[in-house]
Task: structure prediction
Amino acid sequence: MEPLVNASGLRCERDARALFSGLDLALEPGEILELRGPNGAGKSTLLRILAGLYPDYEGELSVAPFTYLGHKPGINPRLCVADNLIYLARLAGTADIEQIASTLERVGLAGFEPLGCDALSAGQLRRVALAGLLLRPRPLWLLDEPFTALDEAGIALVEALLGAHARGGGAAICATHQSLSSVPARTLTL
Amino acid sequence: MSPFATQLRRDLRALLRAPGDIVNPLAFFLLVIALFPMGVGPDPALLSGLAPGVVWILALLATLLGVEAMYQQDHGDGSLEQLVLEARPLYLAVLGKALAHWLLTGLPLIAVAPLAALMLSLPVAQLGDLLLALMLGTPTLALLAGIGAALTLGANRGGLLIALLILPLYVPVLIFGAAASQSGGFGGSPAFPLLILCALLAASVTLAPFAIAAALRIAVEH
Result:
């Protein structure tokens, strides 16, 4: 099977300091990779390189179609939950608008469609972003600290979503400071 | 749905939720125009000579007012990252964004322009040419303002920087826009400046989205 991520000899310098060099990375379908490391180790930068959001690196890289979820949720606070999700799904060309209600139910926000996103808490915004992730069915997830601002139920939810994604033949790379407890995952420490 | 229609719909909705971004530039436009008769005196002959130039200069400034907020918001909440990653092609999405901005800031400006012309004693016979010139010129202004806003994302005090970057680019639109609205400019016929405005619009619709898209990529790639 083709690996979903194939990187060899990745090297990245930031502010004249090598974040990593000679990094090899291959991710098969069904695998979940935890990116660990202290603050500033380059976890986010590596994810951004994989997502094509940080061009300043050396090495070979091929990445399957992915959805990237960064520090910022990518949700416009002026729009309601449904408008944000419709927009994301249509932009990605995977417009399955019918699924919005059931997806919101999966992330614990059933019935939140008409609410303005400026009325949501940080954790709820994260959950809306997770719904946006689920609405775009892609083999690879690149998640930068997906547990930020989430409560215990939210953390369990992310782990359950990751597990289901891996069982369905997807793969994910998670930058996190909190180890995944209920899903089998490989760890890469930067 | 194409990225163009998707982005247009989304930005129209987002802008309508923030009426201040629409109303403030309009209020600025009308207020400053109302100051002119008080500053230079109420002589109709003097005012009507100044009118096209004054309306155009204020239209330039008004288009600069709202555009920063639009891109800053998307940059701040992470929407811009998703836009750059997901929109294929980004060009069309950016064009949709610019059209949404123009529909809710440029078009209302044209709607209140007759009132501005009245305050400046512009002869009614010239009003049609002024409105036509604004119709052709303000979309170009909105697109150029988009370039400035995208380039200054992440910069402190972006607003002033946008003005410094973009106002020189506005000069051709100002010259031909004001000429089209003035009697006797370019041999008395407004056709020539209006055609130039058409050409500028065609060039900016085709080229400006490339520049905006490139600037947005730079803004999110760090």
